[in-house]
Design a protein that fits this description.
Blueprint lengths: L1 H6 L12 H10 L20 H33 L1 H4 L3 H28 L2 H26 L5 H24 L4 H16 L33 H14 L2 H19 L3 H27 L11 H35 L6 H45 L1
Helix pairs in contact: 2-3, 2-5, 2-6, 3-5, 3-7, 5-6, 5-7, 9-12, 10-11, 10-12, 11-12, 12-13
Pfam families: EcsB (PF05975)
GO cellular component, one term: membrane
Protein name: ABC transporter permease
């Protein structure tokens, strides 16, 4: 397939910007983490040996550098032949791009490791995303300038300076080994990022507890003013949801994807997209609730079906309404941006109209999903009765 694509490239490839390979390589490099090769068994006696720790640290640094270089070479080797007409880069320029991208990725892993050791919680997340944006904003124009070929000496000097910076960061990291818990956490996260997509549905992909405070709901206290039993059950689910960093990240990504889909569509299509996105979000939240109910300790609670249904409806609304209203506001702002004048009031009117509409959608989903569960339970009971009659 790749050879056929190389012999007969589509027309749209020639219209891509020349910096496209640089941006793609930057995204690939900025997803990396530093490997430390720390194992929980090392805490018995090997972690007290400085020689052992330094050996593992150097092995992790060497592995990370080799992996970044391999990924960069593979990405550049696949993209640059396809975009040779659009970029006009020579083989030497492509090799220089691959080397500089690999070094940049190695430097990123060291800076990210230092950042994650220094900060916790929301500050860590904001710092990592801010550093990602700064790396892309700095490296893409510099690499694009170097790939023009006008200043080969300056480009070579930049790669040499980047290599020296990597050596300095690696030496600093080897001299500043963190605690055993930090080494284990860094290794588990790096390994999970490497193989988690392969073991997504297996027990091996579940990361062990990181041993740190969550970056949402850091202080105890009630979240809802209502203290009746359904609201308290919904609060339990919401706390479990917001304390899971992966679920929070997925929720934010879905919300941002919805914002982009609504903003980039015409107003009428954005309204249709809003309804579809709200339906998808509602079904996803309902599935998360069902999974939470069947967890080891939550399944021990003997709640009535009415309490479960009311708590499920309240819990879904706690996340459905804020995200759905944010999408309504984006739709109104997009209408005002396109048409101006009185259309700007849609940014206020649409959320006001969407609040009761989302409540109706949530209640309708409760009735619909409840009917489906009752039908399945009746069919299961009928199967049990028939099997008993046969025996």
């Amino acid at each position: 397939m790749y050879l056929d694509l190389l012999r007969h490239p589509p027309d749209w490839i020639g219209h891509l910007p020349a910096r496209t390979p640089i941006v793609v390589l930057a995204i690939l490099m900025l997803r990396a983490r530093l490997r430390t090769f720390a194992e929980s068994g090392d805490g018995l006696f090997l972690r007290s040996s400085g020689r052992w720790v330094s050996g593992m640290t150097l092995a992790g640094l060497a592995y990370t550098l080799a992996a970044r270089m391999a990924v960069s070479a593979a990405g550049a080797g696949l993209m640059l032949p396809l975009m040779s007409d659009a970029t006009g880069w020579s083989f030497g320029a492509g090799a220089a791009l691959a080397v500089s991208a690999g070094l940049m990725g190695f430097a990123w892993t060291l800076i990210r490791d230092a950042t994650e050791r220094r900060w916790q919680g929301a500050r860590r997340v904001l710092a990592v995303y801010g550093l990602r944006a700064a790396f892309i904003a700095a490296w893409v124009p510099v690499a694009g300038w170097g790939m023009r070929g006008g200043e080969p000496v300056a480009a070579a000097a930049f790669i040499a300076a980047l290599a020296l910076a990597c050596v300095g960061l690696a030496w600093r990291r080897s001299m500043r080994a963190g605690t055993f818990a930090q080494e284990l956490e860094a290794e588990h996260r790096a390994y999970g990022d490497n193989v988690g997509w392969v073991l997504m549905d297996t027990e091996q992909a579940k990361r062990p507890p990181a041993g740190r405070r969550p970056w949402v709901l850091r202080k105890p206290g009630p979240l809802l003013k209502r203290r009746d039993e359904p609201a308290r059950i919904a609060e339990l689910w919401l706390r479990a949801m917001l304390r899971d960093a992966e679920q929070v990240r997925t929720l934010l990504q879905f919300a941002l994807l919805g914002i982009a889909a609504i903003w980039l569509s015409p107003v009428w299509l954005g309204a249709i997209a809003w309804a579809g996105l709200c339906a998808l979000l509602l079904l996803w939240l309902n599935g998360l609730w069902g999974r939470w109910e069947t967890e080891r300790y939550m399944a021990l609670y003997d709640w009535s079906e009415a309490l479960r249904t009311d708590g499920r409806e309240i819990g879904r609304s706690l996340l459905l309404r804020p995200i759905g209203l944010a999408w309504c506001a984006i739709l109104g702002l997009h209408a005002g941006w396109l048409y101006g004048g009185p259309w700007w009031t849609a940014a206020l009117l649409l959320p006001a109209a969407g609040y009761p509409l989302l409540g109706r959608i949530n209640r309708a989903a409760t009735a619909l999903l409840g009917t489906g569960r009752e039908g399945r339970s009746k069919s299961d009971a009928g199967d049990i009765d028939r099997s008993g009659g046969v025996e």
